[in-house]
Design brief:
With about 450 residues, this protein is mostly helical. It is about 80% helix and about 0% strand. The protein binds tryptophan. Tryptophan binds next to helix 1, helix 2, helix 5, helix 10 and helix 15.
Length: about 450
Amino acid sequence: MQQRDIFASKIGIIAAAAGSAIGLGNLWKFPYMAGKYGGSAFIIIYIIAIILMGYPLIYSEFAIGRKTKVNAADAFGKVVNKKCWNITGILSVISICLITTFYLMITGWVVYYFFQSVTGNLYVVPEGIDASVHFTNIFSSMSASMWIPAILGTVAAIATGFINSLGIKEGIEKYSKILMPILAVLFIGLIAYSTTLSGFKQSVLFLFQPNFTALTPTVVIAAIGQAFFSLSIGMGILVTYGSYISEKEDIRHIAKSVCVADTLIALFAGLLIFPAVFTYNLEPTQGPSLIFMSLPQVFLKMPGGRWFSALFFLFVFIAALTSLVSMLEIPITYLQERTHWNRKKTTWTIVTFSCLASYIITAGEGPLSSIHIFGMTIFGVLDYLTNNITIPLAAVLIAVLVGWVWKTDNLNAELAIGGRGEKFTDKILTFFLKWITPVLIVILMVSLLTGVQP
Ligand code: TRP
């Protein structure tokens, strides 16, 4: 059997894991979810969920991966020697395959906006037409055409496949170490500009001034689901990356860095987008098209806005690319271990299937948009299903597996390799993992599915 590849440096692991976590979830989804679910109420739950539920789940997943050193679908069963627990990994792999399809479509949208900014076409507003109508038209005609996002999503998938095909050390680690610093520089520049807009103060209030009137079980489950989506929990990626982490590394430290980086980027993304929304009197609750319709209105008014816009969409593209790389790594590791094909063949097979599946979702936003399931488009259904059902369910299963079957003593023993011994905070987090996370999520899911609000 081939030797398993391994991350060469800690900074490389952090860059790759943060690259996976930071993505469209932070830049495209978090702002519209926060807008839709009442701003600060959502954000407070989101932050609590990250600290008390997300963080322990991340290090648990890493620990399971490193302990078992196999793909995500087989790791959960292997760690407790009971095959039935593989259901957790299978659920995770299903989630990730569903998410990859719409992720590719949105990345296609981002690439389109990047090119339209560079050519300047995005900002040529026809005489007599209001800017907001113009941007709505551009967005609608892009999604209706289908072939534009499909082709550009394919371009993104090919770029991803190129990185994956080079392997962990030479591909994922190397490119994460190049791309993540570029991302940080672009982000700081964009934020600096945003603070100068007049709507900045209103955004800070909207996002951070405590307001619990909006707090309902729907908001809580949405915030938890979004926290897990953003940290890539319950989708096999952390187990997969964990399987490539060496015994010398402190897993807790890596998990902490990922949480901090991911949360900061999400919150700042809110601060980047809402000033635009408030300055130009747009609706904060607009939904998935928020960054495609709101932000361009700001860029339109800025001197040199077209170039700023190009930088912004380049930034989003890089964030999406590093996430896509980690998404594809899950089925790639799985398929390679099952078939023993070489890395290139495995990678391009997965890229092909992902693209084909994503065309269905893309068609669902365009020519097939009349198809509605429970009042949602195909993309809407997948987004709802993964955020509210499969991801939280996988998280519950992981919490139960680690807390009750594998047992926290074994978890702590794995964490102590390369790390330090147990501390007081670990006891609190373990308590959450065993008792609060599974119970709370199950109650919320039942309440959501039955419509009975506690
Ligand atoms: N966390 C990523 C983001 O915020 C998206 C994501 C969800 C993801 N699940 C994943 C990335 C699994 C990699 C693997 O955009």
